[in-house]
Amino acid sequence: MLYPDCPVIIRTVEVGGLTKSQLIHKLQQYSILMNDYGERLLADDKFTTSDTKYSLQTVELTVGDLGFPHGATTAQIFKKASELGFELCPLELGPHLRLGYLDQPEGYLGNPLLRHQAPSDSITIASEILTEDDDFPKGFYLRRINDLLWLRGYRADHLHVWNPNDHFIFCKQNRR
Description:
Elements: E1 9-15, H1 20-29, E2 33-34, H2 36-43, E3 54-62, E4 72-73, H3 74-83, E5 86-87, H4 93-100, E6 123-125, E7 139-145, E8 148-154, E9 161-162, E10 167-172
Parallel strand pairs: 2-8, 6-10
Antiparallel strand pairs: 1-3, 3-10, 4-9, 5-10, 6-7, 7-8
């Protein structure tokens, strides 16, 4: 099924109101783990936080639900989402969504880890890409593995093809 007739998960997420160091401290308080890419994203000067709290409505759906039964590149996914009225999320949504989604289902459950592909049951947050440098992380994804919550950064070049069952989160166009 294709959007809008497919299953989607809509969330309202409170974003902003914390400095970068307060956000990092809160992630540590909740024992949220990060990989090197996630830490690099958070530490970068281009990662900014809003002084003011605001609400975002997000929609989670798969690459296949966007009309790509054989997968698609990041650019194709972002273009199609824009045509459907979705926006890219601010980068700071990643840590705030992780803090608000503590009951994410377990991800591994016998599914093999695949190199150069999104892990099963992970959710990639569609956000503005800070740099075209292929060695720099492109954004965040959320996952739970062995009962541990992760906020991870990922790298993907412009040729990377996402699988049809990969989950993405976009923002509905009602920001601020």
